[in-house]
Structures are given as C-alpha cells and as structure tokens.
Amino acid sequence: MEEITLHENERIDQLFTNEVQVIQSSEVFSFSLDAVLLAHFAEPKRGYKTKLIDFCAGNGAVGLFLSSKTNGQITSVEIQPKLAEMAQRSVRLNNLTERMEVLNIDLNDSLKYLRKDNFDTIVCKITIPHIIQSIPFLTLT
C-alpha cells in the first residue's frame, strides 16, 4: 500500500462494514450517513466498461464506497481544491488510481472536461434543489 501523508487536522476514517479508507479533516466537510446511504442505494453496472460520475464529491467518499459495486471507471468532480486533493489521496490510499480520477473543477465547466453522454451512472450528494436546477445538464428527480 502506498504511503499517504496526512496534513494537520486530518484523519483516516473507515466504516466497519467496508474496507474503504477516507481521508477527512475537521477543517472541511466530512462524509456522514447521507454519503453511506447514497452509495448503498446506488446501483451502478458492474462491467469494466461502466463509467460512473460523482458530482459534488467532497472528499470522495461516495465514489470510494461505490468502487466495490462496479469494476468500471469512476470520476469524482469537486470544486474545492482542499477536498479534491484529499479525495485524490484517498484514491491512492485505497489503490484505486487505475479506476478512479478526481477532477477539481466547477460543475458549470464540466462539459469542457467531460464528454456528453459518456456516463452510465451519475450520483450527486448535494441536496439543495436550486443549485441542482441551475446546472443545465442535471435534472432533479
């Protein structure tokens, strides 16, 4: 396993039912039950050609939890540099660099970096409807 450096006020958390380790910090948003539930109820395809995207990924917890439910590629998108960097280190910590990438970009700019109609599964933990509705290619259902 790759040696991962923790920064000040960071810790590694792990759920008892899951071997995934997530770097968290008391200075920024940490995952909680909503991330665990979203990953539990999401049903991505298992195939190697499957492509999953996690918008508003935070520290990457949802994508990391979903990595055990698919053999495909997972892309996490996070606007905050600190959280995106923590997510990237968590990807390395869990030896998922071949299957997961973290993009530190604004959702509104995501079509500049991501191909349209390229993903089988989209997850987004954000629960503020007016923000979701302001993103032209997402639909709140």
Automatic annotation (TrEMBL):
Tree of life domain: Bacteria
Entry's Gene Ontology molecular function annotations: methyltransferase activity
Pfam families: MTS (PF05175)
SUPFAM superfamilies from the UniProt entry: S-adenosyl-L-methionine-dependent methyltransferases
Domain called Methyltransferase small: residue spans: 22-124
Gene Ontology biological process terms in this record: methylation
Keyword Glycosyltransferase: no
Listed InterPro entries: SAM-dependent_MTases_sf, Small_mtfrase_dom, tRNA_Adenine-N(6)_MTase
Keywords: Methyltransferase, Transferase
Protein name per Swiss-Prot or TrEMBL: O-methyltransferase
UniProt source species: Ligilactobacillus ceti DSM 22408
